[in-house]
Amino acid sequence: MLSMPLDLVQTIANVCDRVSAACAAGARDPQDVRLLLATKTQPADLVRRAVAAAQGLDLRTTGRGARVLVGENRVQELTAKAPDLADLRLEAHLIGPLQSNKVNHALRALALHGSACVESVDSWELARRLSDRAVAGATASPLDVFLQVNVSGEPTKSGVSPQAASDLAVAVGGLAGLRLRGFMTIGANSADRGLVRAGFDTLREVRDTVVSSGAVGTSDAVELSMGMSRDLEEAVLAGATIVRVGTAVFGTRPPLG
């Protein structure tokens, strides 16, 4: 049996408090940072509860509409859960690796939501495949995409290198059917907070270089999806506009069955 959080409103409030504290330290507006619920292994009914909790909390504390996003790591889970969540009209993000042979499955599932984004574009080949399918009408056009950058250089992480990111981003920005919205990374797996922060700073510098390039299709690439439960403070201080949080909201993930 799944272990359910006792109070999703409280766990989400705790995350929002952390974001707000980091924003205060960095002289930023907390409304400039959106919360993405990383729902890996979480069942659709629990995701629905978490979304409702986040939306209710947002309305009570700011009086504004909900700014919560949902993100799936695996295409198989995205496909399984999308029909059960489609009525919520959420902005759904694919935040895990996407193989070319699963593009059609992913886009069909993402199309069921209110809006969709693929955050894990890390090659020209994948970008071209997404472009071709978007132009063919597989999803709403343009399809929002982020470029995934491996700022830590760790071989276990996906993403293009920071040195190659700007050129690839400019190329992706010119593809029909896609809208380059920003950049995504996973922070270094290190207890050295300075090292983690440096990686996030690198992603911001890549973003700034691309947006200031004047190249076609790059002016909207302002988003920075970075920071998770363990390192969201460093990410916010470095300029994150989206933090992807799972464990801090849902607790330790149940094993995949």
TrEMBL record:
<feature type="modified residue" description="N6-(pyridoxal phosphate)lysine">
    <location>
        <position position="40"/>
    </location>
</feature>
<dbReference type="GO" id="GO:0030170">
    <property type="term" value="F:pyridoxal phosphate binding"/>
</dbReference>
<comment type="similarity">
    <text>Belongs to the pyridoxal phosphate-binding protein YggS/PROSC family.</text>
</comment>
<feature type="domain" description="Alanine racemase N-terminal">
    <location>
        <begin position="115"/>
        <end position="254"/>
    </location>
</feature>
<dbReference type="InterPro" id="IPR029066">
    <property type="entry name" value="PLP-binding_barrel"/>
</dbReference>
<dbReference type="Pfam" id="PF01168">
    <property type="entry name" value="Ala_racemase_N"/>
</dbReference>
<dbReference type="InterPro" id="IPR011078">
    <property type="entry name" value="PyrdxlP_homeostasis"/>
</dbReference>
<dbReference type="InterPro" id="IPR001608">
    <property type="entry name" value="Ala_racemase_N"/>
</dbReference>
<keyword id="KW-0663">Pyridoxal phosphate</keyword>
<comment type="function">
    <text>Pyridoxal 5'-phosphate (PLP)-binding protein, which is involved in PLP homeostasis.</text>
</comment>
<protein>
    <recommendedName>
        <fullName>Pyridoxal phosphate homeostasis protein</fullName>
    </recommendedName>
</protein>
